[in-house]
Write a structure and sequence with these properties.
The structure is a single chain. The protein contains 7 helices and 7 strands; from the N terminus they run E-H-E-H-E-H-E-H-E-H-E-H-H-E. It has one domain: Rossmann fold (3-Layer(aba) Sandwich), CATH 3.40.50.720. It is an alpha/beta fold. The N and C termini lie far apart (34 Å). The protein has a 7-stranded parallel beta sheet, sandwiched between helices. Bound molecules: NADP nicotinamide-adenine-dinucleotide phosphate. Residues 11-12, 14-18, 36-38, 41, 61-64, 89-93, 112, 139, 141, 183, 185-186, 188-190, 214 line the site of NADP nicotinamide-adenine-dinucleotide phosphate.
C-alpha cells in the first residue's frame, strides 16, 4: 500500500474525522503527526496508536496561528525526516441565520476554516517543493455544494477553500498532489459548536438520524493517499445515502 511509511500531518486530529483518519492511516503503516488544541486528546490518541504498533507524534496546534502550523510541519520533518501529506481537516461550524448577526461566529469560521487552511499551505508548500513531492488534502463540505440556509457563512468559508484548492492544484505542477474531500453529515462533535439553539437542535437531529460514521470519511481520505504518485484524486464527495 502507498500509505505504508508515509508521513502525514493532520489538523483537527483530536476528534471526529481527524481522529478516525489518524487511526486508520496509522494502522495502514503511516507515521502520523497530530495537531489540534486539546492536548489530552492528542496525547491519548498518540498513545493508542503507539500501543497498537504504529508511530505518532503530536503537538498542540491552533490553526488560527501561522506559527503553530509551521511548528507542526517542522515536527514531521524533525521526527520523521519529511512530510508527505498535509490533511487540513480542522474546522468549526457555529452556523446560524444571517439575520442573527453573530459576527464573532462568522469571524471564527473565517479564521479556522479558511485562514487555518492557508497557514497549512504556507507551512507545507516550501517543504513539498524542496522534496519534489507532497500532497495537500483539504476537508471541505457538501454545505458548499448544495447551499442550505442557515449554513451560508460556513458554506462560504468552505467554498473559499474549494476555490483555493483548485488554484493550488493548477499551480502545483507535475509533482505535487492536491485533493479535496467534501463530506456530508457525519456523526461527530461538530454540532457542539453551534450556538443558535434551533439550528443546533435541527442539525443534531439530522446527524443522529443519518450521519455517517467518521470512519467512512477516513476511508475516502485513505483511498486518496493510497494512490500511486502519478494519480491525483482531486475531489471526493461522500454523503449519507439519505441526505438530499
Ligand atoms: N461532521 C460533519 O457533518 C461534517 C460535514 C462536512 C464537513 N465537515 C468538516 O470536517 C472537519 C472535521 O470536523 P468533524 O466533523 O470531525 O468535527 P469535530 O469532531 O468537531 O472535529 C473538529 C476538529 O477541529 C479541531 N479544531 C477546531 N478549531 C481548531 C483550531 N482553532 N485549531 C486547531 N484545531 C481546531 C478540533 O480540535 P480542538 O478542539 O482540540 O482544537 C477537532 O479536532 C471540519 O473541517 C468540518 O467542517 C464535517
Amino acid at each position: 500500500m502507498a500509505i505504508d511509511g508515509k508521513v502525514l500531518a493532520i489538523t483537527g486530529a483530536s476528534s471526529g474525522i481527524g481522529r478516525a483518519t489518524a487511526l486508520m492511516l496509522a494502522r495502514g503503516g503511516a507515521k502520523v503527526v497530530l495537531g489540534a488544541r486539546r492536548e489530552d486528546a492528542l496525547r491519548t490518541l498518540a498513545a493508542d496508536i503507539s500501543s497498537a504498533g504504529g508511530e505518532a507524534a503530536w503537538q498542540a496546534t491552533d490553526v488560527t496561528r501561522r506559527a503553530d502550523l509551521q511548528n507542526l510541519v517542522e515536527l514531521a520533518c524533525t521526527r520523521f525526516g519529511r512530510l508527505d501529506v498535509l490533511i487540513s481537516n480542522a474546522g468549526i461550524g457555529p452556523i446560524s441565520p444571517i439575520d442573527e448577526l453573530r459576527v464573532d461566529d462568522w469571524q471564527a469560521m473565517v479564521e479556522v476554516n479558511m485562514l487555518g487552511v492557508l497557514y497549512g499551505i504556507a507551512a507545507a508548500l516550501p517543504v513539498f517543493r524542496r522534496q519534489g513531492a507532497g500532497h495537500f488534502i483539504n476537508v471541505i463540505s457538501t454545505s458548499g455544494l448544495r447551499i442550505v440556509s442557515p449554513q451560508g457563512i460556513y458554506a462560504g468559508t468552505k467554498n473559499a477553500v474549494r476555490t483555493i484548492t483548485e488554484a493550488l492544484r493548477q499551480e502545483a505542477g507535475p509533482h505535487l498532489r492536491v485533493s479535496e474531500i467534501s463530506p456530508g453529515m457525519v456523526a461527530t462533535d461538530f454540532a457542539a459548536s453551534i450556538q443558535h439553539p434551533a439550528t443546533r437542535a435541527a442539525i443534531g437531529r439530522q446527524v443522529e438520524e443519518i450521519g455517517l460514521a467518521p470512519e467512512a470519511v477516513a476511508g475516502a481520505i485513505a483511498f486518496v493517499v493510497d494512490q500511486p504518485p502519478e494519480v491525483d484524486v482531486n475531489s471526493i464527495v461522500i454523503r449519507p445515502t439519505a441526505q438530499n
